[in-house]
Amino acid sequence: MPDRYSDLHNKIEILQQTIKSRDESIGHLQFQLDTVLTTKRWKIASALAHLYHYIFDNAIPITRDRQDYHFNPYEYVKQFKDIAVVALATKYKPLQIKSPFSTATTIYNEGKDIQLFLQSIEAQSLWPNEVILVDGGSTDNTIKIVETFARTSKLPIRLIKGNHLNIPAGRNLAIQSCQNEIIVLADAGTRLHENYFSNLLGALLEHPDADLVGGIYHAQHKSRFSQYFVPDWQQVDWKTFLPSTRSMLLKKSLALAAGLYPEYLQTGDDTLFDINYRRLSYKWVFNQEAIVLWDSPNSQAQSTKLLHSYGFGDGRSGVGDFSFYHSPTSVPERMEYYQGYLKGKAERANLEISKRKIRGLFIIVADLPIHDKGSIFNLWFVKSCLGYGYKVVYVNLFSRTHPDAYKSYLDLDYTLLELYGIDNFDIKEILHRYHAITQRIFLLQRSSAILSPEIESALKIYPEIKVGHSLLVNRLFLLIQAFTHDNSSNIENYYVPALDCQIPGLSGIYERVLGRKRDGYFVEIGAYDGSAISNTAFLADTGWRGVYVEPVPKYAAMCKKRHLQNNVKVCAVGIGAKKLKVKVNIGGDISTTLEDPQEFYTSIGFPDEAKKHTGKSVMVDQVPLEDLLIKEGVPPHFDLLVLDTEGTEWEILKVFNIARWKPTLVIVEMHEKSVDWNKADLVRSSNAKINQYFQQAGYAKIYSDDINSIFLNKKH
């Protein structure tokens, strides 16, 4: 017992000493704090901090919950399917590389840096076949320096003089002017590290199927402000990283298909481009040995100016929010970025109206996430609105935390679709932004639920938005409340039921390649009923001409009925290598001329489809594709060819003279990924032949998923 009391006594003494020591430390810290609080600098900083918290916590409701804010492009790029990302740290020997390539750069008043930039290209162990420089209208000595350098250097430099071109416009002109498919983008304010080109191109030796190779940039640290602009490469998540134009290799055909860089943006254009490019590509590779050197801001003035510019671009484009950028610790710098963000955001609506030519704004309030299994109608409606050139604001009324709440966001349209949870949605702010087209705003609810108080309040501010009702027959919903300017009783002119495309984001691909064309021409082989999972029905609804080919008479009749009001032809014939009578095997809603459809569907991983083929068939006339195009008067160089013939695609293509017709886009069902290759020799063989066929014909593959591939005519 005495030993126990002695131990407790010792512990108490130790604790008392600890408390005394901490009291002294607290007293010392309190003295330091009191000293700071009396300084002029602290009084200013305190006022700024107070203002900062006021702005960030109260100014815009969209910023209240930064952790769940859904406009983070670096987070939601994860939603892209079927893209493989590889990270390397490999040095390559230039002698191994034989692929021709171009370098494209836009310049503007680069007098102090352009000489070093060109010298760093000249010093490379691997030279490009051409160096394209587009000047945006420099007013300093930039052009003179470039012309002097070009006279003495053996580099194949081509200077293109523009007038009043911003950075994305100059970059687009540079890309379009390149003669090679492989293009390395670079910024004039950088210097290329040794073997930069060989380490970028070398990655293609190891990964020839890559659509993009990204390098990295090292800042020349001259001050603490560098940390705001340069990522820590040890912590980069390469699966979501979007490469900088300072250091990347891309393919010209895919860049053109992605719509190039949005020229209405001053900053943020590269983020939007990367997102659109990634939609079309299959594989990205990053090589940390492909390095460029970059001078980051070396003063607070330069830092805040650049942060303001970044914020402005992010606000105009809608690609992100202040909380998802590099977070500067200094209050003034945060405020500079946010000031730019608010300024850019204020211009966003005008840009979308003037540049994107949006027809109006739909506000959809629903109790299901956009991509939930129970919200097929919502997804169709959003697609139809976007396909017709409307902007969509989608509000998830109840299930904001649902894991699939925003999965389709980037697949649909990144710039014309905004998604909100009801708790960070401010309808007054939206209506204020788009007041110029208020008469075209529609507010839809999936059910007859009572409107939220916020929405009712907004309608009082904007009385021109009238309440109407529309009944649309669909098993998934009963009533839609529509708020329209003209108080109309239906929305038939705006809702297109047949937008259940087989390819996610297909309307976006069409728009980037063909623009918002309303007078195009398509041919679809294997149309079924012309509606279900159709990749062309909404084109026909918008005024396109075309030909639907469906060999099964019953399905052809359904297709004809669906498109009675459209300018299309429906042909109930089969398409194949020869002109003859053939047996079409029918299973459920799919048909094929394959002799053993059950084996085919089992091999591609669709056993349920195989079970449907139980012997039902019909005899039809078969003709080669070219014969049909001639007979139906299809124009050469038409816009779109779709082949979906359940395993006979190569039999059709092998006798088709594509050089004569040259369609801009070709969609082919190929089943490249969900295949049991132990059982699918036919699929493997035909896929290889199809890929080679289009490659030799001058087409580039711009999209591939489990079922379909899209090929683009490079000369488009």
Descriptors for this entry?
716 residues, Rossmann fold, 9-stranded mixed sheet, 7-stranded mixed sheet, 24 helices
Describe the structure.
With 716 residues, this protein is of the alpha/beta class. It has three domains: 85-298, Spore Coat Polysaccharide Biosynthesis Protein SpsA, Chain A (Alpha-Beta Complex); 361-484; 506-713, 3-Layer(aba) Sandwich (Rossmann fold). It has 24 helices and 26 strands.
Which CATH-level-2 architecture of the largest domain?
Answer: Alpha-Beta Complex
Mean pLDDT: 75
Measured distance between first and last alpha carbons: 95 Å
Largest sheet: 9 strands, mixed
Work out the count of structural domains: 3
DSSP strand tally? 26
CATH superfamily heading of the largest domain: Spore Coat Polysaccharide Biosynthesis Protein SpsA, Chain A
Summary of the model, kept short:
By secondary structure, the protein is an alpha/beta fold.
Topology:
Blueprint: H1 2-37, H2 40-58, H3 73-76, E1 84-88, E2 102-107, H4 114-122, E3 130-135, H5 142-152, E4 157-161, H6 167-177, E5 182-185, E6 190-192, H7 196-206, E7 212-219, E8 248-251, H8 252-257, H9 269-280, E9 283-294, H10 300-317, H11 331-354, E10 361-366, H12 376-387, E11 391-396, H13 409-412, E12 417-421, H14 427-433, E13 442-445, H15 453-461, E14 466-470, E15 480-484, H16 506-514, E16 521-525, H17 537-541, E17 545-549, H18 553-562, E18 568-571, E19 574-575, E20 580-587, E21 590-592, H19 597-603, H20 607-612, E22 617-623, H21 625-631, E23 640-643, H22 649-653, H23 658-661, E24 665-669, H24 681-696, E25 699-704, E26 708-713
Parallel strand pairs: 1-9, 2-3, 2-5, 3-4, 7-9, 10-11, 10-13, 11-12, 16-17, 16-23, 17-18, 19-22, 23-24
Antiparallel strand pairs: 5-8, 6-9, 7-8, 14-15, 20-21, 20-22, 24-26, 25-26
Helix pairs in contact: 2-11, 10-11
